[in-house]
Write a structure and sequence with these properties.
- This protein is of the alpha+beta class.
- The chain is 18% helix and 24% strand.
- It has one domain (1-55).
- The chain has one helix and two strands.
- A hairpin with a 2-residue loop joins β1 and β2.
- The chain is elongated.
Length: 55
């Protein structure tokens, strides 16, 4: 049986560092073995910066 990963795959630590270093908001929903389910936090495509309420 062939493994699920190959030499070019990144570790969870490498991936989360990549997201964080690039300002990508995310959370890890689930991890099972070498498979991780990640959810990204994004704004709507219709988001209008001019009419958006101030934070």
């Amino acid at each position: 049986m062939q493994p699920l990963y190959n030499k070019d795959d990144k570790t969870l630590e490498e991936i989360t560092k990549l997201f964080t270093d690039n300002g990508i908001e995310y959370f890890i929903k689930k991890k099972k073995g070498c498979v991780v389910k990640v959810h990204f936090i994004v704004k709507d495509d219709d988001y209008d910066i001019i009419t958006a309420p101030e934070e």
